[in-house]
Structures are given as C-alpha cells and as structure tokens.
C-alpha cells in the first residue's frame, strides 16, 4: 500500500490557474444540480477555548475531468488577523481518496484552493446571471476574499473601475495601491464609505465578517448582480433583509441552503434555485433589470473538483521531472 502524497500550499499555488479553476467550479455547480455530486451536510465544531470553528466538508463528484472523493477540513479563526505575525483567518486541507479502495491517496493544501474556488464561484455566477454591461465592480472587504475577488474578476472581466471598501479604510487603500501597481493601471479605487462603493455599481461582491447589513436596497442600481460571500453571524448577514425580499436569489446548493439559510426562509425569501440550473439552461436567466443575488455558501464538490485538478497537475509535473 503506497503512502499518501502531500501537496503543500506553495506547490498548490504554483499549479493553480484561473481558467481551469473556473471550469472545475462550473462543473461542480452543474454536477450538484444534475445530482452527479454527493455532499453530506457540513458539520461545525466550535472550540470552547477559542473563537476557532472547524468545518468538515465531505463530498463526491462524478465527472471525467474533475471527479473525486474527498473531504475538506477547514478552520475559521477570526483572531488570526490580530496576531503579532498575522495568519490567514481561513486554513484548510483536503483529503483525497482512491475511489475504489477508499485508501487515502493525497492530502492537498486547501487554503489557496478555498480562496480561488470561492472567487471563481462568484465569477461563474456572474457570467450566468449578469451576462453583459460590466462597467463598475464594487468589492466590500479588503481581506483575503476581497483581494482574490479583485484579482479573479480583473482576470475574467473587463471592468473599467474596480472599487474596494473596507471598514478599516487603510486596509482598502493598501490593497488598491498594490493592485494598481501590479496591473500597472489606475482602475482600482478606494472608497471611503460602503454607500459610495455600491452606488452605481453593476456587480457587487461582499466578502466580510459583518454581522449587520453593509449593503442597503436604496443604494442599488436596477439590474445589479450581487455575490454575497461572507458570513458574519450567519451567511446572510451582509445584505439588508429588503434586498433578499425584493431580488432574485440563487444559491449554490439546496441542502446547504435549507440549513444554513433557514433564516432567509423565515423572512419569506424564495430562492429561484441552484446556480447549476441556470448553467444547464433548465432555469431561465433572470430579467436583465432585476437585482440578482448569488448567495455563496461554499461546497465540498468545488473542493473535490479542485483537489482532483491539482492532484492531476502535480502528477503530470512529477512525471515530467
Ligand atoms: N462562501 C464561501 O465559499 C466562503 C466564504 N468565506 C467567507 O468570506 C468572508 C471573508 O473571508 P476572508 O476574506 O478569508 O477573511 P479575512 O479575515 O481575510 O477578511 C475579512 C474581512 O472582513 C472585514 N471585516 C471584519 N469584521 C467586519 C465587520 N464587522 N464589518 C465589516 N467588515 C468586517 C475585515 O476587515 P478588517 O481586517 O479591517 O477588520 C476584512 O476585510 C468570511 O465571512 C468567510 O467566512 C470564506 C471562504 C469561502
Ligand atoms: O466553503 C468554505 O470553505 C467556507 N465557507 C465559509 C468559511 C469556509
């Protein structure tokens, strides 16, 4: 019996690319809708001696290119940011199993994968729910997800302006400066308030730990698309209730939504369906003048697809050397 391979974060980082990530995530979202993926509900284990939360996310995906049986273990430790030497808030590993035998074949660093696949899921949802009219992108949150969303959306879409707001404005200023320098442009702009950031935007991303709404309905332009990524108290704490009640809301997976978004159900919010249904064409695209929300929870199927992608690239590269 061979020992499992360890693919560390720095190796994962070198193997990641946006186009394959997009394909893997799109395949995962479609497979969940087509019932070619199995995702047992994720579990949440709260440490009683710290703020750290451990999530276990088992999944299986039946797909020629991205199929895999795996389990992501991911921790959320909000205080990491305040350490003398700050660490990422979200850290993960993905266990990948041989399907026929159940033997562990690889442990794949999951922190970069979580970053990339989450931004790619927002990009996939945006492609299917807001097919054109990109001028202005508003990103609320300048942490790990805010940054990777800026990079991902700049890769896939031709926004004229990418605005970034953070409740601590200095952090947004630093990120904007970095991105304008890296891409040798001036399209990244720092906003002093969340309202200034959102007003007039065509696409909005929320990626914070905000426990109360940071986006209000009256700030939204007709036809805006929102990718709601962050979770404060719950996964729907970043947008005001009236946004959810008046817009077309799509989710990544029903099973997760039934438990983790139960609060929205109590407010009378009816989900239009899984984004996978829009990808397959079974669900009609929303009218262009309607506000749309992609409520992203994150799925094991995305992580399995990504771990398989990285595993295959790692083996290919090892065989070449
Ligand atoms: N849907 C999905 O698949 C995934 C969702 N997530 C979620 O995305 C969110 C961001 O994660 P990540 O970027 O990795 O975390 P980071 O810690 O890197 O960033 C968090 C950001 O939220 C800001 N923030 C913290 N508290 C508040 C507040 N009360 N109001 C407004 N902004 C606040 C922080 O600002 P500052 O540092 O200045 O305080 C920072 O910009 C989290 O809620 C996380 O759970 C993450 C991964 C996957
Ligand atoms: O899907 C995911 O990995 C996560 N969602 C929220 C925190 C981590």
UniProtKB/TrEMBL annotation:
InterPro entries registered for this protein in UniProt: NAD(P)-bd_dom_sf (IPR036291), ODC_Mu_crystall (IPR003462), ODC_N (IPR023401)
Top class in the EC scheme: oxidoreductase
Top-level taxonomic group: Eukaryota
Reaction catalysis annotation: L-proline + NADP(+) = 1-pyrroline-2-carboxylate + NADPH + H(+); L-proline + NAD(+) = 1-pyrroline-2-carboxylate + NADH + H(+); Delta(2)-thiazoline-2-carboxylate + NADPH + 2 H(+) = L-thiazolidine-2-carboxylate + NADP(+); L-pipecolate + NAD(+) = Delta(1)-piperideine-2-carboxylate + NADH + H(+)
Pfam families reported for this sequence: OCD_Mu_crystall
An example molecular function term from Gene Ontology annotations: thiomorpholine-carboxylate dehydrogenase activity
EC number: 1.5.1.1, 1.5.1.25
Gene Ontology, cellular component aspect: cytoplasm
Gene3D superfamilies for the chain: NAD(P)-binding Rossmann-like Domain, ornithine cyclodeaminase, domain 1
Protein family: Belongs to the ornithine cyclodeaminase/mu-crystallin family.
Quaternary assembly: Homodimer. Binds the thyroid hormone triiodothyronine (T3); T3 binding inhibits enzymatic activity.
Protein name, as recorded: Ketimine reductase mu-crystallin
Organism: Zophobas morio
High-level lineage: Eukaryota, Metazoa, Ecdysozoa, Arthropoda, Hexapoda
